[in-house]
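Batch job 17 of 40 flagged for manual review because the log was empty.
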Amino acid sequence: MIISRISGGLGNQMFQYAIAKSMAKKNNDISKLDVFFYPKQTLRKHELNKFNIEEDIASKKECNNLRASEGFIFKVKNKLGLNISRPKFYTYEYNITSFDKEVFDKNGDIYLDGFWQNENYFKSIREEIINDFTPKDRISDEVNRYLQDIKSVNSVSLHIRRGDYLADKHTNSVHGVSGLDYYKNATEYISTKIENPIFYIFSDDITWCKENFTFLQNKIFIDDTKSAIDDLELMKKCKHNIIANSTFSWWGAWLNQNDKKIVIAPKVWFIDEKWQNLSITLNDWIKI
């Protein structure tokens, strides 16, 4: 049995699901999800169940058997920085963004604790992952209207992540926010590569975008969708993508099935000094 700890926002959840499914396929095993991170969360919620995924939720007992219980004593030791023993099944991600072949070579019961933001963990089952990350429910009328236009023009998704990247002090210190210069350079670049691009702008702060993207022509602000799933469905159907340093828009680009797509990503993914040389972008994406 492969159990993956699900945490963070939707983009992170998708990585955590993808590695578990991929490892289970390789090992001819089953994968389950540990979603016990969410009951006490106010900022984040479990959203994988909005996709057509193979969802099997692990019980508390199954999680404790593979990772050990994380009760009061565990929390005290963790806060004090004391050594915490774990069962042999427990597998922690020590090197973020890197593909750890030793992790992927494991067999038997495994508990995965990390973000696993590297496509090499699941690239071999790309088509299955694409199929899994389709909406479970019927898409809204608003999405359908946008989709008709997106398919008929040289559509470019442009994602601006603000929200918690600004509001949360820790998140801001790690990621920072891609500035307007990045988006100006990205839109100028893509305008030299494709004819008459139409920019579809997605953001968790669309009001700010309307005030600040006056420099951009041929733009459409996506401001009446109902959920992150709606936005992701539209982003991946655009012919090209300009992404933020965000796993959410990373997935919008990765799920895009246009063989001739241009994907533009920030050259700096993390502003934290100890991670500045790290990135989750693909080699054939344009870094600006």
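Reviewer: the log was empty due to a logging misconfiguration, but the result itself is present. The chain has a mean pLDDT of 90. Unflagging and moving on to job 18.
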